[in-house]
Design brief:
globular; single chain; alpha+beta; 7 helices; two-stranded parallel sheet
């Protein structure tokens, strides 16, 4: 999970990234854009660009685009919990992490984003929030996303949707990201 300064991935600056590799475990790497950005990205580049390491995310297209802004290609198999949720229940109106977590894990996320950054005209950007609060928020997102992967993957398989998910939808995420990055001429 990435925390950034904007919901628009083309304008977003990286604030930090969290990783989860085991249920209940996650770590957060904060980024100070003035001093640590290059060091952090150089350290993480081998993980992001490693085709042998699968990546799991909620709306992973966002991370794909943000990384491209730093000349990093997100390689390897990807699993998007938002897309999986949509395929499993296309009539459902909302596929955000909170809703998916409640539905499949019975878990309500601890801190709504509005508690961190506010909303509307008074909203601030994530880089202005205390790093400990951002860390807790971001790590929970990664842990929940990691826990959802196996559940959603099993549900996709049971409903005969795994081929559609892995052969059509996940490759399409990369195509749509590339289209957003390139843009269109009007």
């Amino acid at each position: 999970d990435f925390e950034t300064t904007s919901e628009d991935p083309m304008l977003a600056e990286l604030v930090g990234v969290s990783f989860s590799w085991r249920t209940g475990h996650a770590c957060y790497v904060p980024v100070n854009k003035h001093h640590q950005l290059k060091t952090v990205l150089d350290s993480l580049r081998p993980v992001f660009e490693n085709a042998h390491i699968a990546k799991i995310g909620q709306n992973i297209k966002y991370e794909y685009i943000v990384l491209s802004n730093y000349d990093i290609l997100l390689a390897g198999d990807i699993f998007d919990t938002m897309v999986a949720s949509y395929l499993l229940n296309p009539a459902k109106l909302n596929h955000n992490l909170e809703e998916i977590s409640i539905e499949h894990l019975g878990h309500k996320l601890t801190t709504p984003i509005e508690e961190l950054i506010g909303k509307g005209k008074k909203a601030i950007t994530m880089d202005l929030v205390d790093v400990e609060r951002v860390s807790a928020y971001c790590c929970e997102d990664s842990d929940v996303t990691f826990r959802l992967k196996d559940i959603l993957s099993k549900d996709l398989s049971e409903k005969g949707l795994d081929e559609l998910f892995y052969k059509v939808e996940m490759p399409l995420v990369r195509v749509l990201a590339a289209m957003e990055i390139t843009g269109v001429s009007i």
